[in-house]
């Protein structure tokens, strides 16, 4: 009997030990999984990283440049690694700030050459192709001069919770790289057709006409039940017209509106909020628009000739906004233009008191409940 009891006790102990080992292994797997590198998100991370770096050298305000720099620092494990690898961009910004020639806009294309994953880190090699549009034209062609080039980088990155951290960064010299990198470059030539997009108001207006009541099934989130969809719709129109997203104005996916940093925030307040969008349009660092009029009081009954003459300066793709007591609550895009009254027609999605409309004549917009002393502002969008 004692032997039987002893034998059973050992079986119980062995069973408990095996269960414990399996549990520990599963716990280890779960712990490791929270730090596992997702290959599909690496592309987005580096695309955003270098869009920010090249936006830093354009003619943005010092305030916006500081915001970009602060956001970039946040994705580096070490401040020394960050500072070392920002030197080139700091130099370019310093040179351009003292010159009449500036970079007005930029486009970036990041290609993943290779990525090797360990349990908690990855070694990633990328090619970064960039195009920087200057504010000067070639004296013979009269076309804007665009600086283009590409660099090869090697990074070591880790993932903590849902955020990437850069551990090391190195720009590679093509005269001393693995043959595999040269093979990639030769087999995947840089697309020289990549260009810095300017704004096309006709394209933006047509996108508005196509989608005012038929929003895209992907790449678009409807904020109708979250305060209104008008500014979100306007932002998408501007994007399809050619605006490149920046820290101060961006939408990557739906999520809580947080800060103005594309590396840490999926959506800036200015993308969906009418008043925040107005602040972006009128900010000192925004060279995309020119304010043509503001504070024009809407009539209760009919528009005067003077009022119509004020708004007729807008053209296709331009922006109009409504405000009450200085707070903007509705955004609209000019989608049609005539030589006679009412001159401009506006398209928009819904906001409080305004249901979606296509090509609404401006002279049908008037004071409306629940707003009082409502005004309209208009912005010319630069090509």
Explained architecture:
Helix 2 runs antiparallel to helix 3 (62-73) and helix 6 crosses helix 7. The longest helix has 32 residues, at 2-33. The termini are far apart. The chain folds into two domains: 39-187, Nuclear Transport Factor 2, Chain: A (Roll); 201-381. The protein has helices at residues 2-33, 39-55, 62-73, 79-97, 179-187, 201-211, 230-241, 269-272, 274-282, 305-311, and strands spanning 103-117, 121-137, 144-160, 163-171, 289-297, 319-324, 327-337, 344-348, 357-361, 374-381. It has a six-stranded antiparallel β-sheet with strand order 5-10-6-7-8-9, with helices on both faces. It has a four-stranded antiparallel β-sheet with strand order 1-2-3-4, with helices on one face. It is α+β, with helices and mostly antiparallel strands and 383 residues long. It contains ten helices and ten strands. The model is unreliable at 19-36 (pLDDT under 50).
Describe the protein's topology.
Blueprint: H1 2-33, H2 39-55, H3 62-73, H4 79-97, E1 103-117, E2 121-137, E3 144-160, E4 163-171, H5 179-187, H6 201-211, H7 230-241, H8 269-272, H9 274-282, E5 289-297, H10 305-311, E6 319-324, E7 327-337, E8 344-348, E9 357-361, E10 374-381
Antiparallel strand pairs: 1-2, 2-3, 3-4, 5-10, 6-7, 6-10, 7-8, 8-9
């Amino acid at each position: 009997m004692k032997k039987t009891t002893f034998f059973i006790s050992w079986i119980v102990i062995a069973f408990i030990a095996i269960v414990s080992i399996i549990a520990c292994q599963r716990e280890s797997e779960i712990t490791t999984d929270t730090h596992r590198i997702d290959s599909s998100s690496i592309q987005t991370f580096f695309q955003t990283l270098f869009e920010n770096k090249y936006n830093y050298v354009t003619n943005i305000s010092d305030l916006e440049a500081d915001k970009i720099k602060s956001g970039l620092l946040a994705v580096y494990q070490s401040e020394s690694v960050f500072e070392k690898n920002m030197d080139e961009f700091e130099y370019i910004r310093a040179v351009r700030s003292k010159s009449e020639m500036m970079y007005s806009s930029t486009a970036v294309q990041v290609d993943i050459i290779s990525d090797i994953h360990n349990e908690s880190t990855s070694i990633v090699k990328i090619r970064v192709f960039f195009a920087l549009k200057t504010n000067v034209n070639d004296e013979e062609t009269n076309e804007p001069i665009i600086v283009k080039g590409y660099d090869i980088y090697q990074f070591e990155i880790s993932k903590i919770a849902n955020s990437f951290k850069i551990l090391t960064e190195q720009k590679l010299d093509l005269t001393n790289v693995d043959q595999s990198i040269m093979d990639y470059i030769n087999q995947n030539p840089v697309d020289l057709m990549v260009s810095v997009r300017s704004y096309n108001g006709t394209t933006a207006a047509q996108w508005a006409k196509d989608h005012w009541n038929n929003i895209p099934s992907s790449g678009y989130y409807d904020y109708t039940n979250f305060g209104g969809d008008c500014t979100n719709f306007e932002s998408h129109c501007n994007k399809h017209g050619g605006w490149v997203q920046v820290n101060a104005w961006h939408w990557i996916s739906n999520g809580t509106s947080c800060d103005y940093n594309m590396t840490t925030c999926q959506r800036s307040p200015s993308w969906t909020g009418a008043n925040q969008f107005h602040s972006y349009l009128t900010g000192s660092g925004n060279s995309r628009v020119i304010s043509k009029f503001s504070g024009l009081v809407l009539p209760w009954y009919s528009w005067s000739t003077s009022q119509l003459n004020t708004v007729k300066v807008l053209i296709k793709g331009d922006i109009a906004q409504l405000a009450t007591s200085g707070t903007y609550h509705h955004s609209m895009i000019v989608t049609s233009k005539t030589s006679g009254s009412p001159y401009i027609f506006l398209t928009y999605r819904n906001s409080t008191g305004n249901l979606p409309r296509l090509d609404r004549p401006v002279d049908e917009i008037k004071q409306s409940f629940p707003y009082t002393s409502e005004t309209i502002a208009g912005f010319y969008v630069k090509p």
